[in-house]
Specification:
Length: 92
């Protein structure tokens, strides 16, 4: 393993994990194909799951992915942003 390749922005050794869970907390998808310095949204955008969602596939009607503020909202991604009063809200 090349330590430089797996050194993240905080200068620590990292591995980028993309994981998707269902409403019951069960993992439905996991990818560890990208090194630590790669942004989470880029890692996700290179997965088979993302590409399937872009083509219109959904595991069930109305399915979407909840992501953190580092992701851009898309028709199937809802990014959580902080509200002005410190409470989290969904923006789509």
């Amino acid at each position: 393993m090349n330590p430089v390749f797996y050194t993240g922005r905080k200068k620590k050794t990292t591995v980028n994990v993309v994981a998707v869970c269902d409403a019951h907390g069960r993992f439905n998808f996991v990818s560890v194909n990208w090194p630590g310095p790669v942004h989470d949204s880029r890692s996700f955008s290179k997965t088979v799951l993302y590409k399937s969602f872009c083509r219109g596939w959904r595991p069930f009607k109305g399915a979407f992915v909840i992501a953190d503020k580092g992701y851009k909202n898309e028709d199937f991604i809802v990014a959580i942003k902080k509200a002005k009063k410190g409470r989290k809200q969904f923006y789509k």
